Known about the structure:
The complex is a heterodimer.
Chain A: E1 5-14, E2 17-27, E3 32-36, H1 43-51, E4 58-63, H2 70-75, E5 76-79, H3 91-101, H4 107-116, H5 130-142, E6 148-152, H6 160-173, E7 179-184, H7 187-190, E8 196-201, E9 204-210, H8 211-214, H9 221-228
Parallel strand pairs in A: 3-7, 3-8, 5-6, 6-7
Antiparallel strand pairs in A: 1-2, 1-4, 8-9
Chain B: H1 2-37, H2 40-70, H3 78-81, H4 88-125, H5 129-142, H6 149-181, H7 191-215, E1 218-223, E2 227-231, E3 234-236, E4 244-249, H8 251-273
Helix pairs in contact in B: 1-2, 1-4, 2-4, 2-6, 4-6, 6-7, 6-8, 7-8
Amino acid sequence: MAPLIEVRNLSKSYGSHLVLDNISFGFEEGQIIGLLGPNGSGKTSLIKILVGLINDYSGDALIDGQRPGPYTKSLVAYLPEKTYLPEWMRPVDAIEFFSDFYADFDKQKGFRMLDTFELPRRQIIKSMSKGMQEKLQLMLVMCRNARLYILDEPLGGVDPAARAFILDTIMKNHPAGSTVLLSTHLINDVERIFDSVLMIGRGHVLIKSGVDELRRDGRTIEDVFKEVFKYAWQVN
Amino acid sequence: MLGKLIKHEFKSTAHSMFAIYLSALITFIVMCLVFFIKNKALMVISSVALGGICVAALVITLFAIIGTFNKSLYGNQGYLSFTLPVTGNSLLASKTVVSLCWVLISFVFAIAVTLFLIFYWVAQTSENVKSIVDTVYSMLQEMQGVPDAETALKSIIVIVVFMFIKALFLIFKVSFAITVANTKQFQKMNTILAAILVYFAVYIVLTIGNIIGTLIPVQLAVASNDIGFSIGESLFGLAQDAKIFVSIPILGNLFEFFVCILLYSVTGTIMTKHVNIK
Lengths: 236, 278
């Protein structure tokens, strides 16, 4: 089976700082993948390359065998760290927008989820709190019946109750057989949902493994994470 | 997809333009009312207000164009725009089409406001607009080579095409400058400052090109019964003894047209291959 996500000899640098150093890996379809690493390890850069927001890199980043472009973007539902909706929009406008551009967007589900999330349909985004905006973005992404969900730090900067809500929304709404690539450094909350993990740091892939293999000797993913990334907090 | 992009681009920009044109409409209605009640102070105030709104419309249009590229492509909204299943060229084309529409609307609005203010005050002072129009028309008829209706229409079409090119030229210069300012070469500089520097660099280079173009004496010649070309003293497409009403330099416009094509394709390439969304 050909991998849905395939990265070959991928390198990306910012000036003299090499963030991704000739990394290669692949993941088949139908898994929930944890993209793990400390802050500044290159998770967001890797994601931005996969979704087509970073273009100056060397190597290949392929989704369903193709470089980022209109085809791969039609397969990927992407949730960035940032709030990206125009301030003048209202949730109804955002639903209309997503419905126009993504053939896999479920408009009825969108309206249902607005009510479930208690988001006012006609309140402009500018007047919404950051939390409401993040809820709206999550809802829009999860209303797509995408093949691949790429979620960049969806749990960052929120309280434990909100984290549980976000995880619940992701788990309940991603279609069976779809793939979820979720980046985070809050492993404790999410390790139970992962099928595979990819740990990156210092520009390299440090671990790419199924979670069952990692847990074989009774360790948790968090234990492995602490061990692999202890260098990040060592004082020389 | 281009149609959908244009639709949403219009929605996105219309709300900032809506207020200015609504205020112009309200001012226009007020002006009509105070004209009939003959309140001169209010007429002056409302005329100045309409003139101010006209200037504001031009300025806001320019800011809307800057915003449509800088904010919605290279700001946080870029995370949405660049992950849509469309090509980079479609994104650029949709923004160009909508920006062009707003520029042309603001041009037409400025012309309409100017004409309206002239007639408004002429009507106030002489109360006989028709006689002034007749006087201007008879003055025109006494001039050499006044074009007939068909030629005048052709001339207006040519002028509209030139306006179109000028508007495109402005949009492409702005979009190019903002796109270049967002490349990694300018990462350490403030984006707006970088865009201004790039814009003026491009402006200087293109102005030099345009001046060189105008030195070559190829002009569009509007005569009494047709339009042709003049190169120096020779006429092409017209009788050699045709009386020329007006000559319009065209090489500058042609130069701008080709630069438009160049800037569009270069901007598209830089946008899709060299810009990283921050």
